[in-house]
Amino acid sequence: MLISESKKFVYFSAPKSASTTMRSRLDQYKTESFLERYFDLDENDDHMHLLVGGGMQYITLLDAIICPTHLTVEQFERFPEAVNYQDCSKITFVRNPYDRFYSSYQESKMRHMRRFHPEDALRKKIERVDFRTFVMEELDINRIRFDHRFCNFIPQHYYGYRGVRRAVSFCGHNETFDADYRRLCDLLELEFVEVNAHVRQEQKQCSDINDTDGYKYLSMYSVETVGLVNALYARDFDFFGYRPLDPLDFPDVV
Predict the structure, then answer these.
(1) Which of 7, 98, 159, 163 is deepest in the core (most CB within 10 A)?
(2) pLDDT at 92 over 80
(3) How many CA atoms lie within 13 A of 228 on its CB side?
(4) pTM, two decimal places
């Protein structure tokens, strides 16, 4: 999450949805966050130091370990300070669930597990498993929603909706990022700054968010894994205009 009092917006940062690029571009407008007053770090807890080094914090008001960068709408609205930003524009960017899910898997396997203690059983397991095993055996909706180790997999509607209530006035898409970001700059009267995270330099831009030629990771999917993503992110497909793909169009085994 990034708040700008000068430009009157709150950006809800869905992980693996151009969030690094967005924060880089919007950072010049950032207001100092009120969240730090709710951080509670045990200086003697080595595990907590690993978490904080990876961007996690224990938030007293939420009684949970979360990544403050990726605060959801529901979490934000639980803070008393949220009322100060009722008149601000709320914005987010989203990504097709297939690419986002595989990208989250990559980051969990290659980087995020390093945040946790070397003897953490889940870390050891994920370091060894392939995509299909990870998807079919390690993930379920309850773990994704509430386990800080899997914050990248939280469905994107939590960053744009609270329940079925739309909470953002602007929602851009990763597949049409360039055009959508220009619209956002016009809307909020922002200076257009073209700063990209390295991964965005490889992102093909499309005129249609459902143009699968712009999707990067479909070749990694099978019947099983497409079916799971369709079920897990059903609301993301519905709320953000993405079209679910037919699992039968994919191979049994990759």
Answers:
(1) 159
(2) yes
(3) 19
(4) 0.88
